[in-house]
Amino acid sequence: MKKKIFILITMLIFTAAALFAITAEEIIEKMELNLVYDTSIVEGRMVINDRFGSRTSTYISYAEGDDKSLLEFTNIEDAGQKILRLEDEIYLYYPDAEETIRLQGAALRQAVMGSDFSYEDMTGDKGILGSYSVTLNGEESIDGNPCYILTLTAKTRDVPYQKEIMWVDKELFIYRQVHKLAKSGKLLKEMKLMDLIKVDGLYIPSRLTMVDKLKRNSSTEFYMDSIELGVALPADIFSIGELW
Q1: I need a surface site. Which of 52, 191, 202, 221 has the fewest CB within 10 A?
Q2: Domain 24-243 sits in CATH 3.40.30.10
């Protein structure tokens, strides 16, 4: 009997080891290889759907690493409005007012153009492992794609969401779905990958849908229509002075 118990325990240990042969941190590191680039230029659209109907804003964005980005709206109604991120700081520029505003505190959570994305959402997070503790909680398929389920718990208050649940594709290491939660566990937003493309060997989200669970009948589709990686950017493109 003791021998049978020992064999059973050994089998359970090896089964668990096989299930979690990869760590949560390794999954995040592999995923970020698909999301963080030396430099990039993206052109795309943001389609906002709410009780007033549907409207589209177009944009071009520039990024360097995971802490510098510039997004400029190009459609007629919003042309020239810019969102600049420099590490932990976010600045807005309005051409009509010829004014630059630094966003702080609760203002960072305001909706961009009435969309389901906040300014923090639009400009991305810092490196995930620097901001969150990560645990692997099993596996589940999203739209037929086997995924790892990760729980992210904030290390400090200086992040947009205190908790996130992320479904990461087991083969491609790209997120398929993300739930953004309050500290209480209340679901605030749901982001879902609708389409992706392969660029220079990397799998990149090309269409995302964000739903703000605190709004009624509201969703936003975010399209990346063209993506260039590893391109040369002007040295001063991420300068506050160049917003004007």
Answers
A1: 52
A2: no
